[in-house]
């Protein structure tokens, strides 16, 4: 099989191509309907197929003779623990947890919110929900109470599963008080809350409401996997959009299973028995696709890491893990490698470890700068691949396909479109751009299996956000260009989304928080370049006349508000007071111009700018630091 052949076929005959891929999945009932189009332009894959994702990830692997193989290898330098779960052990743990949830009344179609650190119980909880057909929504631990409350109100969970704490470099993060606060803010009341008590910190439980996870589940009866329709939702993953309200990306069971089987094999080159390491957190899409579901459904061992690239305890921990678990391939965000490079530029810590098992490294989540790319290839001596995808797609859009030959890499490109994705570049009028010309990156419909086809309880918003701008196409929100051979070059988001340390955040949401301060007349928040984190937010604020607070105090208050409302992960530390903001004559703030100004990039002041002198004033404020 070659890349060109498969790619062309996937677009010319999507039904035939994906019907063939679907045969790799152990359905309870194999689909006969491959692709249905709805009147609104969205699609349904494998409509009459019946399956269960937890069965595919666990029971099926045991049936295939992998019962004793390690499924999850938990390695936690922050807690000093390591634990291996075989497929059989994991299946048993998950079945018991699912049985307990079922006894609580949780069943198919109920939502369950997980606010959990990177402990194996997070993966178990996801798989237990999947077993029952309950829809999980994992909220990243770095989000503060307000963000959690927004997600609780949108997902309306019957049950919330949490842990007493998360562990950072330098501190224990108490999760339970954050959840308690979120529940005070939220309108929705879950029926139950269960808390996994970690030895580092005991959470206090509210009598009559909170349950002790360990105690409750130990004697539960196991639950068998429930047969589900392909289109039944597996999970909701909230992601930042351009407004303060996050989008609830919905993933189906059937399309997801087919897409991930395809991706693990053809894109990542993984086979059953291989060891895979998805370096992320279950709070992100990568954690769903590449820590839990993808590797397990492919029969791989998944390394489950609770730690950082540096300081847990040092910049050698990634290389230690690769050696210790004989990792064959990994996914990682460029930020992590930049952090390692900063502390160990010569690769001295790396040279103490045997990376012989490692075949290749995949990087995504944000732009991979060519300097980090070259450094990583030189210190590891392994191929390093940039690839591009989004929470919405759930699996790679562009990538080198390890098991389909003929897709060489090009510097600065996130590679060519993966089979199934018809990637195009268009201008605002919907004209396809010639090679080399920049524009909006879109994907012609139908999106391949696995991609999000609706937003939780808001289908209209899905249609507006993704399908309205370019009829017949999905609008990715990224800008860039293609070269004459189809290699894709991502230049960055064209909306108010930024990527901070590979974490997707909305500057619009930060603006909402800043603008609510009583002394702020108006503000603009945008992403500026950061040596390690890729981007960090910068706020320019205009004060109301006679604002009494001294600048330093105002800055501190705004930083505290964003941390309190959105979370520490926003890395919101930079606030500058300016007299005015540059706007078009119709009053639109020129954020793209501000970003270029702050990054020191060349730009021509737009003719729509009402007063060009404003830019000089702002440049002076930024230069003053
Ligand atoms: N729970 C609670 N707080 C969290 C958290 C979590 N799960 N994750 C991050 N935070 C907090 C951190 O403690 C930090 O708080 P602080 O401002 O009090 O120090 C803040 O959020 C920012 O965290 P982080 O972005 O991790 O910055 P850092 O300076 O602590 O670490 C790196 C820098 C480069 C090591 C880190 O950003 C990193 O590992 N990046 C890679 C991330 C990644 O793999 N992303 C892939 C997503 S697909
Ligand atoms: P998320 O939904 O959190 O996975 O973030 C998706 C966004 O991250 C994309 O829309 C891009 O803006 C960015 N992104 C992901 N991968 C890459 C990449 N390889 N190069 C540049 N940007 C990327």
From TrEMBL:
Matching SUPFAM superfamilies: Acetyl-CoA synthetase-like
Domain of life: Bacteria
GO molecular function, one term: propionate-CoA ligase activity
Listed PROSITE patterns: AMP_BINDING
Domain AMP-dependent synthetase/ligase: 59-444
Residue span, Acetyl-coenzyme A synthetase N-terminal domain: 3-55
InterPro entries in alphabetical order: ACAS_N (IPR032387), AMP-bd_C (IPR025110), AMP-bd_C_sf (IPR045851), AMP-binding_CS (IPR020845), AMP-dep_synth/lig_dom (IPR000873), ANL_N_sf (IPR042099)
Domain AMP-binding enzyme C-terminal stretches: 509-588
PANTHER family: ACYL-COA SYNTHETASE, ACYL-COA SYNTHETASE SHORT-CHAIN FAMILY MEMBER 3, MITOCHONDRIAL
Assigned protein family: Belongs to the ATP-dependent AMP-binding enzyme family.
The name this protein goes by in its record: Propionyl-CoA synthetase
């Amino acid at each position: 099989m070659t890349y060109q052949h498969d790619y062309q076929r996937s677009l010319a005959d999507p039904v035939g191509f994906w019907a063939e891929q679907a045969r790799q999945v152990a359905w309870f009932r194999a689909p006969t309907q491959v692709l249905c189009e709805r009147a609104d332009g969205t699609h349904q894959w494998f409509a009459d197929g019946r399956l269960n994702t937890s069965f595919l990830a666990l029971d099926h692997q045991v049936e295939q003779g992998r019962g004793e193989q390690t499924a999850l290898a938990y390695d936690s330098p922050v807690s000093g623990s390591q634990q291996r779960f075989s497929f059989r052990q994991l299946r048993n743990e998950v079945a018991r947890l699912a049985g307990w949830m079922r006894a609580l009344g949780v069943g198919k179609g109920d939502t369950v919110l997980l606010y959990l650190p990177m402990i194996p119980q997070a993966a178990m909880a996801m798989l237990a929900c999947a077993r029952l057909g309950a829809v999980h929504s994992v909220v990243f631990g770095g989000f503060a109470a307000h963000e959690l409350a927004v997600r609780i109100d949108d997902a309306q969970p019957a049950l919330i599963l949490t842990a007493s704490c998360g562990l950072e470099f330098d501190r224990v993060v108490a999760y339970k008080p954050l959840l308690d606060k979120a529940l005070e803010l939220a309108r929705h009341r879950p029926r139950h809350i269960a808390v996994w008590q970690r030895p580092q910190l005991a959470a206090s439980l509210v009598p009559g409401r909170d349950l002790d996870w360990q105690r409750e589940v130990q004697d539960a009866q196991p639950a068998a996997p429930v047969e589900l329709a392909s289109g039944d939702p597996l999970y909701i993953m909230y992601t930042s959009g351009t407004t303060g309200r996050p989008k609830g990306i919905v993933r189906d069971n059937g399309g997801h299973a087919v897409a991930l089987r395809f991706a693990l094999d053809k894109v990542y080159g993984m086979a059953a028995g291989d060891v895979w390491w998805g370096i992320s957190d279950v709070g992100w899409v990568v954690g769903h696709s590449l820590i839990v579901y993808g590797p397990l459904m492919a029969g791989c061992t998944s390394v489950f890491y609770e730690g950082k690239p540096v300081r847990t305890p040092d910049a050698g921990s990634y290389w230690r893990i690769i050696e210790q678990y004989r990792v064959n391939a990994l996914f990682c965000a460029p930020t992590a490698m930049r952090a390692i490079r900063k502390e160990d530029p010569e690769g001295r810590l790396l040279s103490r470890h045997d990376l012989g098992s490692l075949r290749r490294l995949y990087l995504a989540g944000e732009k991979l700068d060519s300097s980090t790319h070259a450094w990583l290839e030189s210190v590891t001596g392994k191929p390093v691949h940039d690839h591009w995808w989004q929470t919405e797609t759930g699996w790679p859009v562009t990538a080198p396909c390890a098991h389909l030959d003929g897709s060489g890499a090009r510097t600065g490109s996130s590679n060519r479109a993966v089979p199934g994705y018809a990637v195009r570049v268009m201008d605002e009028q919907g004209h396809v751009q010639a090679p080399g010309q920049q524009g909006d990156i879109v994907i012609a419909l139908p999106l391949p299996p696995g991609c999000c086809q609706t937003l939780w309880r808001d289908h209209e918003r899905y249609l507006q956000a993704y399908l309205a701008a370019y009829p017949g196409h999905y609008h990715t929100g990224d800008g860039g260009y293609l070269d004459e051979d189809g290699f894709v070059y991502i230049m960055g988001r064209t909306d108010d989304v930024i990527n901070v340390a590979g974490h997707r955040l909305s500057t619009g949401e930060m603006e909402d928080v800043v603008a609510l301060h009583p002394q702020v007349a108006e503000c603009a928040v945008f992403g500026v370049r950061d040596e390690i984190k890729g981007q960090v937010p910068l706020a320019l604020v205009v004060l109301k006349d006679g604002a009494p607070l001294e600048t330093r105090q105002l800055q501190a208050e705004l930083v505290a508000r964003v941390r309190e409302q959105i979370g520490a992960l926003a890395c919101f530390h930079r606030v500058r007071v300016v007299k005015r903001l540059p706007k078009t004559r119709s009053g639109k703030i020129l954020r793209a111009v501000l970003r270029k100004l702050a990054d020191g990039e060349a730009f021509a002041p737009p003719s729509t700018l009402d007063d060009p002198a404003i830019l000089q004033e702002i440049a002076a404020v930024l230069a003053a630091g």
